[in-house]
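Methods — Computational structure assignment.
A single polypeptide chain was analysed. Its primary sequence is given first, followed by the predicted tertiary structure written as structure tokens.
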Amino acid sequence: MSLLDKMVLPLERLAIVIGTRWNRATRWRERISGQWERTLHSPMEWLSLYALLLLLLGLTVLDEPLARLCKETVSGEFEGFLKVVTDLGIAGLWLIPSILLCLLFLLCRRVALSPAGREHYTRLAWAPGFVFLSVAVSGLIGDILKFVVGRTRPQLLFEQDLATFEPFTHGWAYNSFPSGHSQAIFAAMVALALVFPRYDRAYLALAVLVAASRVLTTVHYFSDVVAGAWLGIFVTLALARVLAMHGIPVRYQRPGMGGSW
């Protein structure tokens, strides 16, 4: 066997291995694609199942070790960046502007002179109105769950080695589950993705970043964030479904046109 053959043979074997694994990955991609289509067809049901599995994983395996790891490793400028990002999950940042915009458009609707103008402002009002409802309703449910569940925050794990549940307990240290920031940002971003779907990936990427920041800065456990994200998504999708049943599509369309905003 020549020197060239000795050099080429391992490359050929590597190419065969890569090709084989690529073919296997193709089958996996087809399966994932099929599951993605099923998820889009029944999002509330499938997302609830995913959330349940992640909750069980967090509660039984990930929560405390991941919190300790983040406490030890996340610091410096990266931690500072995360603390800025995490503020985007404050509910008021989405509730106040959305309700003010909704009221402004409703006022414009009231003074509009033509039916077309009134229809236009009605459609405009539904965009911020839907965002407000999504964040507010899911936030109210989340606050009730926080009080009922009474889960201690990671801070007590670090300071007192305490990680438990104290149902019907008031106080910041006992309202970790679910994450309010994750609930608010996912509710707002999913609502925006339904109203203006052109930038849906950007909205969801921002939601994931904010939710991850709650874990990385050790304000919440992994399962707290999963529960908050699920709550925001589920309530938003449920509201959209209820509104559609009453003839109110949340996706904005220009008056007299079939296209989206």
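Note: The longest helix spans residues 3-41.
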